[in-house]
Amino acid sequence: MSSHRNGIECSVFVTTRALIVAVALVFAGCSPTPGEITVRNASSERIAKVQILVGHERIVDTNFAAGESRHYDFAIREDAHYDVSVVFQSGRELYLSDGYVTSGMKERDELNVHANGIELIVGTVRP
User: Fold this and answer.
1) What is the pLDDT of residue 25?
2) CB neighbours of 106 closer than 8 A, spacing ≥ 6?
3) pTM
C-alpha cells in the first residue's frame, strides 16, 4: 500500500513541476521586448508636437528644432504598428500609420519628418 501511495505522490510532484515550468515559459514569452525609435526633424520648420502610439505605448514630445533628432525607448508587448502625428509650429499637421512591431523582435526604427510627409525607416534587430 505504501508503494502505491509513493507512486501517487511522485506523479503529483512531476505534474506540479511540469505545470510550474509551463507557466514560467508562458510568462517569459509574454515579457516585453525593448523597442527604440529615433525621430528626426528633417524639415526646415520647428515641430511643436510629436505623438507616437505603438501598441499600448504612447510617446509625446514637443519643441523640435529643424535638424534635431531625439531617441525614445518603448516596450513591445504585442503585435502593433506606429500611429504618428506631427504638428508644426505653423499649425500644419502630418500623419502616418505604418510599420509593424512584434514581441520577440527588437526594433530600432527611425522616423524622418519632412515638410511634406513622414518617412519610416525600419531597422529590426533579431534578439
Assistant:
1) 46
2) 33, 34, 35, 36, 124, 125, 126, 127
3) 0.73
